[in-house]
Amino acid sequence: MRRFAYWCLTIGLFSFGSIVLSAAEFDPAKLGKIRERMQAFVDQKVIAGAVTAVGSKDGLAHLEAVGLQKIETKQPMPKDALFRIASMTKPITAIGIMILQEEGKLSVDDPVEKHLPEFRGQRIVASREGDGVTLKKPSRVITLRDLLTHTSGLPGGFPAGLADLYQTRQRTLAEAVLVSSQQPLDFEPGSKWSYCNSGIDTLGRIIEVASGQSFEEFMAARIFRPLGMNDTACFPTEQQSPRIAGLYDSKDGELIVANRPIVGPATGAKHPIPAGGLYSTGADLAKLYQAMLNAGRLGSTKILSPESVLTMTKVQTGDLACGFVPGMGFGFGWAVVKEPQGVTAMISPGTFGHGGAFGTQGWIDPKQDLFVILLIQRVGLQNADGSDLRRELQQLAVDAIKRTP
Description:
Blueprint: H1 2-11, E1 14-15, E2 18-19, H2 28-31, H3 33-43, E3 49-56, E4 59-70, E5 75-76, E6 83-84, H4 89-102, H5 112-115, E7 124-129, E8 132-136, H6 144-148, H7 162-168, H8 173-181, H9 197-211, H10 215-227, E9 248-251, E10 254-257, E11 279-280, H11 282-293, E12 297-298, E13 301-302, H12 306-312, E14 328-330, E15 335-337, E16 352-355, E17 361-365, E18 370-375, H13 388-399
Antiparallel strand pairs: 1-2, 3-4, 3-18, 4-5, 6-11, 7-8, 9-10, 12-13, 14-15, 15-16, 16-17, 17-18
Helix pairs in contact: 3-13, 4-9, 4-10, 8-9
């Protein structure tokens, strides 16, 4: 039995604690309903356009584009449009950390200060009175595990001074993380969950220190190029820029160009934003998600071991309240469904994924051998993780799976 289990692991058939004998099959007619439903959201002026992707460990079963890439020029949305995937970047950054752990260059249980000395002597807020703040020494130092699970206590938003670095991005990642290191913690490490952009950016800086490469070079060399994700990058090229989808807000029932200078692409920017700066396409993300369903492999290319995939996609936050919809936990960089309900009702416990600030969503359901990708560019949605677009796309994808009688 041990030999059989090991054999399954090595060829990628041992999937998250259960043996998958065959890939999911889909009903093309039912997948076709996705285009119709996404077009309805375009017609209702909820979104300008969308790219959707559905697949299994065997690859894409559906890749479709609807609506407009840019309302101003009436450009139709192409299937290879580039999207700001924002916080969908976070689990990809976490993959970079796991690669380095496999190589022995770091451990998720390392203190952050082991790799970034500027975090030594960090303090925690003991009390606030008026304009005054009293600090004390935390019960322990923060670790990479804390950063990966959003339990470090680092301020969740952009601390004073860091917002300016994000706007211009004329400073390096090292300089931005140095600003974060000088902020007091909001709570004891590991005691609660609080979504933290600066914590993931700190992981990006640790990748630079441990690998000896810039964040963007490491990610390209170790993840994007090996998987053939040729359109995924921190900084789109001049040739790619015409395919970037427009970003929109809603006002008086009409879509308007969003006023978000932070999203770039910034000319000459030096800050890659590991917490949320990647641009990608539906086809590129499908390759990454297919590899995750195949225990870290895409064909003959391995980016992670099965053990690392299992570790980072299981709940690491215990009973802490997590996420932006009910029933969630967090692994390393990935949100994980603990109790399906509401927008997650149709997917399985153990489904993992992440959303982005501009409405994008990507979720991987190992039990149903399914990945679902929604790429849109909208600000102002009340809660992108709980959006009707996400719920309806997931439901249509699950309904399209052919079930064995």
